[in-house]
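User: structure tokens for this one?
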Amino acid sequence: MRRAAIIIGVLVLGLAIAGYVFFNGERKPPVRYRTVPVERGTIISLVTATGTINPITTVQVGSQVSGMIESLHADFNSKVRANQVVARIDPFPYQARRDQAIASLANAKAAFDKARIDLAQRRRELERAKSLIDQQFISQNEVDVALTASEGAVAQLKVTEAAVKQAEAMLQAAELDLKYTVIRSPVDGVVISRLVEVGQRIAASFAIPTLFLIAEDVMKMQVDTNVSEADIGGISEGKAASFTVDAYPGEPFHGRVRQVRNAPINIQNVVTYDVVVEFDNPEFRLKPGMTANVAIVVAKKENVLKVPNSALRFTPPRSVREEKAPVRSAKGESGSRVSGDGASTPALRQVTLWKQDGHDELEQIPVEMGISDGYYAEVRSASLSEGDQVIVGIESPRGDPKGGDLPPGFGSGQPRAPRRDRGL
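Assistant:
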């Protein structure tokens, strides 16, 4: 009897252990999700690029004649006016050429006067010969000789007249070369570069050498940026832009897109386009050549529903997805939208958000994704409202978040810190 009681007790204990293992030992801990509320606010979509600050108009001041720099009348950062003398080239060789051209012109004029006098003499001889032939005092051959001499004198007069014009042109060229020895500024502006020194010899035989670089107006400058082909579609003239420079960290400067150049720039199979951002520079704080980190406002929307981008990237574990989780589709969604003026616009990109209902069941909510600022994304759905908790990641058993990087201050009641790299 006692032996049977022991056997029964062992069996009961074994069944108890087996039941515990079956019902509790194999049970997995529940999955805990990290959620944030859907918020309403402003989203600004930006395109960022790097560019270089340049004057809007840079004039290269050069020399059309060769020679030695005799004197300089402008230096770096000098403010110059139009027609102001900025340099002089040794004029002595050109003065000598001018004097030689003057002497050549005088010689040509003297030859012209002699040819004109000779023509008058030949005409008189021809008239005398014609009167004598009528009286039969001379032969017809002598008349022909006088006629030929008169016509030759006319041709000689034309030759000397052309020589006078040639000498005058040579004198004008010599005087022009002498004038070019004085280098003048063609515009009002500031000298940003001086490329010569006193005593330096310059040669203008094949190309015009550059002596100065003058920025026409440093109060208005521009940033030349290279925007990738993937981002160029949203940029047009008149778009607002801001940028920062290393010289003034944290201080934004503002401008507008003045030009989107159509010429592609292909470097190592990377295609970019030059976008010109114009801005005011009243105190000349920004210098030519500075590197600017530019942010161009492509789109801005206010009072829209927004969620962190991590909520759009979240996907439940496979074991959860394999279960039959309820799915709710947003009402009123379609493939296109009609704007206020009746024009049809393409539909926004379809994405999926996940949230938990009151029974801790996952709900899959299709939404339309609008613009994004890199942290937040605009979402539209009839099944989503402000304050709804959407899933951004899974918490580990230790409570560490997984798979959900949130922007600073999101869902914590604290304002999000401004992004300095955006320039806004």
